[in-house]
């Protein structure tokens, strides 16, 4: 089933795109990540220009997040107060990200920037998550996991609030700054930001693990809506046909992933996610040194 993507100016196999959307949805519900960290690279590998892949993936992540939030909300796995602060920061960050996106595209370096960001961020986060998951699995036999604490810098910030669902008493400035960073990355890389947000919630904010996935998806939902609007207005790189195909598979996939996440061991899930992250980072690293026969990108008119 071949379909034409008008913005990308390509004909692609629609079933392959739908299957990719389903995979994204499963990751969304399973790990609390929007799935864009995997969708964007795979779309690039498939031959879609990085600018179109990044802009369209952020739009598709919105649909997967809606499905995932509903599933986690039923089991009270969402901290809405924490999510609201993160969303505020994400909207601000997406504005800064739009400025950077247009700047790098104007100088002809946006494709390189997108690939390099994936290598650096995915590589470092994948190593951190794998190390922590392995340490937990090795020391978990007969032992109770220690209570997770927030970073010392977070404790030093003023104006503390109580986030009851997360079990925290910290300054809202910490999640606000985290949200700004995630918003910028969402705009630049077409990711929901969950692969950054989930580790930040666990290792920096010290949130309770049972609300991390749902709160991450809640934040991703609104931040990707904001970035979609900004991409449509500023970069005009969103391919609606590509988005529709991805959404077709992702919504159902998110429900399946959310159901499985409740039954699986969190440490094992983090180890699996770390392996996927590192694999994608390695592939993106190779692409930095690979020169195709035909070079193409999307540039402003």
UniProtKB/TrEMBL annotation:
Q: Which domain of life is it from?
A: Bacteria
Keywords from the UniProt entry: Cell membrane, Membrane, Transmembrane, Transmembrane helix
Recorded GO CC terms: plasma membrane
Q: Where does this polypeptide localize?
A: Cell membrane; Membrane
One Pfam short name = TauE
Q: Which family does it belong to?
A: Belongs to the 4-toluene sulfonate uptake permease (TSUP) (TC 2.A.102) family.
UniProt main location, coarse: membrane
What is this protein identified as?
Answer: Probable membrane transporter protein
What is this organism's lineage? Bacteria, Pseudomonadati, Pseudomonadota, Alphaproteobacteria, Sphingomonadales
The answer to whether the entry has keyword Cell membrane is yes
**KW Membrane (keyword) present:** yes
InterPro entries, per this entry?
TM_pro_TauE-like (IPR002781), TSUP/Inactive_protease-like (IPR051598)
Task: Give TM segment ranges.
Answer: 12-38, 44-71, 83-104, 110-130, 176-204, 211-231, 237-256, 268-290
* Membrane topology recorded in Swiss-Prot or TrEMBL: Multi-pass membrane protein
